User: Fold this.
Amino acid sequence: MVALSRVVSALLAFCVLFPCTFARADDYPNRPIHVIMPYSPGGPTDIYARLLAQHLGEALKQPLVMENRPGAGTIVGTDVAAKAAPDGYTLLMMSSTHTVNESLHPKKSYQLMRDFVAIAPVINSDLVMVVYPSLPANNVKEFIQLAKSKPGTLNFASSGQGSNYHMAGELFKLMTGTDLVHVPYKGSGGARTDILAGQVQMMFDSVPTMAPFVQDGKVRALATTGTERSQILPDVPTMSEAGVPGYEANLWVGLMAPTGTPKPIVDLLNAQIRKILTRPDIKEILAKQGAVPMSMTPDEFDAFVRSQIVKWEKIVHTAGLKID
Assistant:
């Protein structure tokens, strides 16, 4: 009788601990889902995230509540998400910047691949290298020649240390052997204003944002950063075509959740996101914004994020980048 009682008690304890987890996954979601956005409103990542949130909320029949928590190059908001309950009701919208931060900010309170699980990538978007029109460089090769003839005198703007725009510039410097001065701003708006005013000579920026200025002749586009030409700027060569073979530095966006989030929830979110991104209307909307949908399983996305961490760690260390 005592033995039977112990068995019953153990089964009850198991049922309390484990089936409740599966029950939550089975009826998930039954309330609004919060998505932590460690970016300011209105930026490229924010725009892509809100498009996904709208359609994912419709598919799940629960609203996705977007919470902008910018600060410290995505670290403030990401730390909030890392401390959230792993129940699928708090998610993190992350980007390539997060993979740079793993080596650029080694003392931060969280570790991306320890404290989060990969759900799915969303989009991949090219950047474009632009220069002020008066700069005597009509293409990438001429820019490299000019930079090498005047080491340490040409500068490039970015939206801040570790940002996609900054790292695109650092990768360019290393692959071309040029000595360019990085001018970090507190956001892409200030950097963009100064490249248009000729206060800085060069900048990497998002294609859809900079395309109108290129078309109006306010800046000169030298190359895009993807493996194929941009649909928005089809006359602009890729960096590889322009003379820097193997160069690739894109802005990509994905979704993660706190470690411990039940796998059925992760799989459900992944399946719904991939389904949304195959829709022709969504592809058309994204194409107009210079973005291409990405499709991976959670395991594939996990491997992709890890590979990006390794890639940018090499750049950070080789360039000797540090955050004061």
In short: Residues 10-23 have pLDDT under 50 and may be disordered.
